[in-house]
């Protein structure tokens, strides 16, 4: 189940507006076909759930991961996320900020502003599970997550 917050509502509206601008029906159909080919393997090899995989938002795989190119062969330039990504935190974060508004995120949670230039969004957020675990953390759990990276001096 997805938790809807004021920030989520704003982000959903932004994504819907951005996703529909400047796309011709033919380009949209070709892009949808490319996403369907991605989903054939990735749905079988793992989970593609959550808000980023919602068909209702019309977010395509290539919107975040870039063109398929030579993927799944070696030398692929597809953008990956997570701890094993060869892309820098700034590169991964820039992808997220094409839809998510940096200022709005900072207003909802101050840690977005503090970490924006040092961490990729994917270092705290999970992009394709049913729900992003960050959205359900209470204050104590959130603090414990911070301690995982920041040393607390006694």
Report on this structure.
This protein is mainly α and 154 residues long. The protein starts with 5 loop residues before the first helix and ends in a 7-residue tail after the last helix.
Would you summarize the structure shown here?
It is built from 7 helices and no strands.
Q: How many helical stretches?
A: 7
Helix-and-strand structural type? mainly alpha
Low-confidence stretches: 14-28
Mean pLDDT: 76
Bulk shape: globular
What oligomeric arrangement do these chains adopt?
A: single chain
Radius of gyration: 17 Å
Total count of strands: 0
Strand content: under 5%
Tell me the series of helices and strands, N- to C-terminal.
HHHHHHH
Distance between the termini: 39 Å
Roughly what percent helix? Answer: 40-55%
Main β-sheet: number of strands, strand sense, barrel status?
none
Strand and helix layout:
Elements: H1 6-20, H2 25-45, H3 61-65, H4 89-96, H5 102-108, H6 111-115, H7 139-147
Defining key terms:
154 residues; mainly alpha
């Amino acid at each position: 189940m997805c938790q809807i917050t004021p920030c989520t509502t704003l982000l959903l509206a932004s994504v819907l507006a951005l996703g529909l601008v400047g796309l011709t029906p033919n380009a949209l159909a070709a892009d949808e076909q490319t996403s369907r080919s991605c989903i054939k393997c990735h749905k079988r090899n793992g989970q593609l759930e959550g808000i980023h995989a919602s068909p209702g938002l019309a977010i395509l795989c290539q919107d975040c991961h870039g063109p398929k190119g030579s993927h799944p062969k070696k030398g692929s330039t597809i953008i990956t996320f997570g701890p094993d990504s060869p892309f820098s935190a700034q590169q991964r974060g820039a992808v997220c900020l094409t839809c998510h508004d940096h200022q709005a995120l900072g207003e909802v949670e101050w840690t977005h502003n503090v970490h924006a230039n040092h961490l990729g969004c994917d270092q705290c957020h999970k992009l394709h599970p049913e729900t992003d675990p960050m959205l359900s953390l209470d204050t104590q759990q959130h603090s414990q997550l911070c301690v995982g990276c920041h040393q607390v001096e006694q």
